[in-house]
């Protein structure tokens, strides 16, 4: 038996969209792009941005290794561990940034909808 109810993933932006959907049935077609944007922002996992950060980190590592002779044969295992740590860190940071930016965009979308349709915060 689960003592804790499941978390409700709804937030102010989705509540705003639900209220608009109910209050303005004639404008459902104009609200549909907002609904699609809200769904994409809400379901963003950050993988795309994490991948971009990992590729950028890999390029920096290559530049450091070959242009500045940063990699040495006698310390290849330590250099490899540092490179893997750097790549993982960059990917994780990018993933968190992607999730955070999607959440910020979702909040801004809710504000835009509330101001456009003259709604109180919700």
Describe this structure in words.
This protein is mostly helical and 122 residues long. The protein has one domain (12-116). It is built from four helices and no strands. The protein has helices spanning 12-23, 28-42, 47-67, 76-116. The longest helix has 41 residues, at 76-116. The relative contact order is 0.18.
SSE order and pairing:
Layout: H1 12-23, H2 28-42, H3 47-67, H4 76-116
Helix pairs in contact: 1-2, 1-4, 2-4, 3-4
Observed structural traits:
rod-shaped, 4 helices, mainly alpha
Cα gyration radius (Å): 22 Å
Report the helical percentage. over 70%
Structural class: mainly alpha
Cα distance spanning the termini = 33 Å
Contiguous low-pLDDT stretches (5 residues minimum) are none
Strand-and-helix sequence, N→C?
Answer: HHHH
Number of continuous helical runs: 4
Structure summary, number of beta strands: 0
What's the overall geometry? rod-shaped
User: What fraction strand?
Assistant: under 5%
Largest sheet: none
- Estimate the mean pLDDT confidence: 81
Summarize the structure.
The chain is built from 4 helices and no strands. The protein is mainly α and 122 residues long. Helix 1 (12-23) packs antiparallel against helix 2 (28-42).
């Amino acid at each position: 038996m689960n003592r804790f109810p499941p978390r409700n993933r709804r937030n102010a932006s989705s509540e705003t969209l639900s209220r608009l959907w109910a209050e303005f049935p004639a404008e459902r077609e104009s609200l549909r792009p907002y609904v699609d944007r809200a769904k994409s922002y809400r379901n963003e996992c950050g993988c795309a941005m994490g991948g971009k950060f990992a590729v950028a980190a890999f390029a920096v590592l290559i530049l450091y290794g070959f242009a500045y002779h940063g990699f040495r044969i006698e310390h290849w295992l330590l250099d490899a561990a540092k490179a893997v740590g750097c790549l993982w860190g960059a990917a994780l940071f990018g993933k968190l940034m992607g999730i955070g930016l999607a959440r910020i965009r979702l909040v801004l979308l809710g504000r835009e909808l509330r101001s456009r349709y003259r709604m109180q915060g919700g």
